[in-house]
Amino acid sequence: MRRIGQGIVLAVLVAGFLIDLGGARARPARAESEAPATNPLSGNQAAMKEGRSWYLAICAICHGVEADGVGERGAAADLRVFNKGFGKFVETVKNGRDVPNRTAKMPPWGGVLSDQQIYQIGAFVETLAKKGANWKGPAN
Ligand code: HEC
Questions:
Q1: Which residues line ligand 1 (CB under 6 A)?
Q2: What is the pTM (predicted TM-score) of this model?
Q3: What are the structural domain ranges in the chain?
């Protein structure tokens, strides 16, 4: 009986995966609102390690090695206090943000970084979060 139960669970998972793949193929440009409500890689050690490498390679120049918003390229947001939730994080990273009268702009990373890489970066930066920040959950 247990065997059969596991088989059914597996079949459902595989079917779900295939349906998901089909959907992704039909709509190559996934809207940001389709980001999962919570970071699926939150707390995943391997993801945090990968995310740290990406963060230091491409984000730290503006947001600072400590994510405090003080990078070589002038002031960007202090990511340790980011509290808008996972969906907004993914959306901002994909679309970027143009801030008037600011030397540094948040570049759009959609099409440069995969969703997976953005989630990995999130899994890393949330480890630097201060009290009251919201990195991994739904919007407040
Ligand atoms: C060229 C400089 C630059 C780079 C590189 C950069 N950012 Fe930004 N980022 C900014 C600026 C400027 C803002 C806007 C700050 C504001 O709105 O006051 C911003 C905003 C953000 C925000 C929104 C913060 C908030 O409170 O709403 C997030 C999240 C973010 N960046 C994450 C990242 C991540 C992750 C990376 C690396 C993939 C990255 N940024 C790379 C400059 C940069």
A1: 58-59, 61-63, 73, 76-77, 79, 82, 84, 89, 92-93, 97, 99, 102, 104-107, 109, 121
A2: 0.80
A3: 1-30, 32-128
Closest Cα to atom 31 of ligand 1: 106
- Which amino acid appears at position 62 of this protein? C
Q: For the domain 32-128, what is the CATH code?
A: 1.10.760.10
Q: How does pLDDT run across 44-74, given as a tens digit for each residue? A: 999 999 999 999 999 999 999 999 999 888 7
